[in-house]
Each structure stands twice: as C-alpha cells, then as structure tokens.
Amino acid sequence: MTTTHALTDPKYYDVTDHTWPAAETRQLGPVTLRRGDGGGSRVSAATVITGHASEAEIIAAEQIMSEMGQDHLFMIRDGQDALDAQLAARGYVIKDPVVLWTCPVEPLCHVEIPPVTSFCVWEPLAIQHEIWAAGGIGPERFAVMQRVEGAKTSLLGRCNDSPAGTGFVAIHDGTAMIHALEILSHQRRKGMGVWLMHRAAQWAADQGARELAVLCTEANAGANGLYASLGMLRAGRYHYRHHPKGV
Predict the structure, then answer these.
(1) Please, are residues 44 and 10 in contact by the beta-carbon 8 Å criterion?
(2) pTM of the full predicted structure?
C-alpha cells in the first residue's frame, strides 16, 4: 500500500482512545495492547507506536492477545506501510478500512432543528439501548461509553412521534467525536442522521469544542454520503489486520 495523501494527524488517534477507551492498555516495547471486553475492534486492536515491531515483539503481543481471549488484531495507522507488509507476510488479512471525517463545529450549529426531533440525554434511555441493540451495539459497547471521562452525552432522535435513532458523543482536547450512531431501519432516509449530527454539533459548541469528528467504515456508503453532505472532509484513515486463525 503506497501512501500518497497527507497523513492523518496523530491527535485524532488520541481523541479516539479517549472518547472510546479500552478497558485496559498494556505496553510491550513499541506495541500498545488493548483489552476490549467485547467492545469492538477499536478497543481491542493493538497498535505499534513506531510503525515497526520485531518479530519477537509481534509474537509476544499475539500471546498476550490470546491470553486476553481476543483475536490477533492490529490497527494499521495511516502511513504504517512497513508494519502493514510485515503483518501481511505473517498471514494477517485486511479488515474494515475506516475513514475519518472532520469539520469545524460552528457551521453545523446555525440550523434550526425541528421541535422534538433530537435531544441530548445522559444516561441513555431504555429505548436508546433497544435502538443500539437492533444495530448490534450491546452492553459491551455501552460499557465503553461509561468508561469515558469528561464531557459526554447520548443523542436521541424522534421522527413521526416515534423513536428513530441514537448516538454517543464525547470530547477530548477540543474535538467532539461521534460514535455508535444508529438509525432504526424503518426510520432511515427521513433526515434523522442530519438532525442528530446538527444536535451533536450544538452540544459540542456548548461544551467549548471546536471540531466535530466521526469514524466510518469505507463500506458504509450511506453514512459516508451523510457526512460528505454536511460538508465534512476526509481527514484520515486506518485499517485493521487480523489473523484468520483467531485466538
């Protein structure tokens, strides 16, 4: 993989770690290991600070991931071509290329959101947990939200007097990052995603955040189209490599 674009600002990886934190992190030389407790790839993937680790360090990291009961999974950050090739040679395959979208908060604040369309709620209501569950976001990922320290909220959307969507927003170092945005299938294509993003921006501005960010798999064409339509720009990328033989 040849990198020909501007590399992702490392601050966004830090924002991700703080707004969607692992249950535990361990350092093994240049390798940061994460225990996710079922919270998904972002909180379970190992990362390599330097972009390269020795074969012995990779093997040791794999052993610890197995002891954690997790797949052998690494996040390949933007520009880590040597690490990418190193893991590919060990039989790791690419999983879930991800796009980072960002924009200033302020432009999304100047829209009047229709009454009783979107709200900020903490703690989330039971109906929000039901919406997340319908999208495969269960208690393990809610535990990630609960671990976040600092300013955070959930988003609740309503359409035609019925629950429609939910999401989670947290702030680190002036950037509000949106996670777990989920719209019920029968409420899609009605603008709910747009209203929830505007609500997130208004909440973020009230908290003093300057920037809005969201991560999205490249395969999710609908969500990527939503973020582009709001004037957000692609500011970075990463992907995972996992070993098919698993734990």
Answers:
(1) no
(2) 0.94
